[in-house]
Amino acid sequence: MKRQIVITGWQSKVLTALYEEDTLCELNLEPKKSQVRVGDIYIGKVKHIVQNIQAAFVEITPGVMGYYPLKDNAVHFFVNQKKNDKIVAGDEIVVQVEKENLKTKAWFLTGRLSFPGRYTVLTKGKTGIQISARIKDAAERDRLTGIVSGEEIEGAAWMIRTEASGQRAEVIGEEMHRLEVDYNRIMSTACMRTCFSKLMSGDSPYTQLIKKFAHGSTCRVTTDLPEVYDELKENFGRWGLSEEALQYYKDDSYPLIKLKGIEAQMDKALQKRVWMRSGAYLVIEPTEALTVIDVNTGKAIGKQKMEENFFKINLEAAQEVCRQLRLRNISGIVIVDFINMKDPEHLKALMDVLREEAAKDSVQTTVVDRTSLHLVEMTRKKVHRSLAEQVRLLPV
């Protein structure tokens, strides 16, 4: 698949856009001087223990609080000397930011430190070897397990990602060595650092996309930000990428954001109604508890019978629904009201297409089922703010 990652500026933010086959699929905005980012590792101070919700509130930088669930973090990485493993107010612990401070919630923290690479992920606090469920071939799963099994680390687990399938053992091994070096550095030096120290910075949105997609000749990265270009040029070799995929765009009279028409596309991505090529449209209504998407025939007039026309519109809508979830970064529970169909084969084909499109999302997206009212239930993992929240958010 042909992809392009565009990195440019918008107001006081860095804008990252992902195009697949020249179609905009993802947009992300981040303040140019972001104080806290998903993936950051800090030495935080426990401020409060709230027993009735089994959670601690941990200050990770002065004035910035995080939510640390105790039931998910039975073992804590203490910096201060302790006689027991009980966590109390005043303790200094090493934590990692797992989710953004969505809406009124604090930053979500974990003690299971994660060191992600393109092919593998090293996680403290787990054990064993896990393999992506998307790798189906049994022989390939055995081969990858064999590569990783010789590098097991006590108190940590390896996760083999989908991208590892078919990759040479030497390449995977080199990445694992880099991750192990980072892991050992933090494990050995954390006790020597002061409270609120940042031990590791999480990847920016554009770095995450580049590491995931910018391999081979089918993806190019374009930016008109000199500081971003210099950063990427310095790191492309370390990431095993060819600098030929990196392009610097310079035209002060016609900036990159205008060349790609991103502002107009962003405006459309914030509107309630989404028109499709057939003339049908979606209505996207976010609520506090869930997001509702309604499929309407609109101006779509087909030459086929009514059932066939509805089937064609629903298939187009299934693809557009999944694109909009990515583009708007909608998360949580999603309810889709497709146009009613009676043919069981059409219903099955619709659900198959919806699952295929959802599988393309880098954020975990699940098609649950159809309800008795013929509504389709979906869920999408909450990691980052929605696009609407990112646009409204002031720099931090």
TrEMBL record:
Q: Where is the S1 motif domain?
A: 39-112
Q: Which cofactor does it need?
A: Mg(2+)
Any one Pfam family match given in the protein's UniProt record, by short name? RNase_E_G
Species of origin: Coprococcus intestinihominis
Gene3D superfamilies from the UniProt entry = Nucleic acid-binding proteins
What is the name attached to this protein's record? Ribonuclease E/G
Which PROSITE patterns did the record assign? S1
Keyword check for DNA repair, yes or no: no
Does Metal-binding appear among the keywords?
yes
Record's InterPro entries?
A: NA-bd_OB-fold (IPR012340), RNA-bd_AU-1/RNase_E/G (IPR019307), RNase_E/G (IPR004659), S1_domain (IPR003029)
User: Any idea which UniProt keywords this protein has?
Assistant: Cell inner membrane, Cell membrane, Endonuclease, Hydrolase, Magnesium, Membrane, Metal-binding, Nuclease, RNA-binding
Q: Which SUPFAM superfamilies match?
A: Nucleic acid-binding proteins
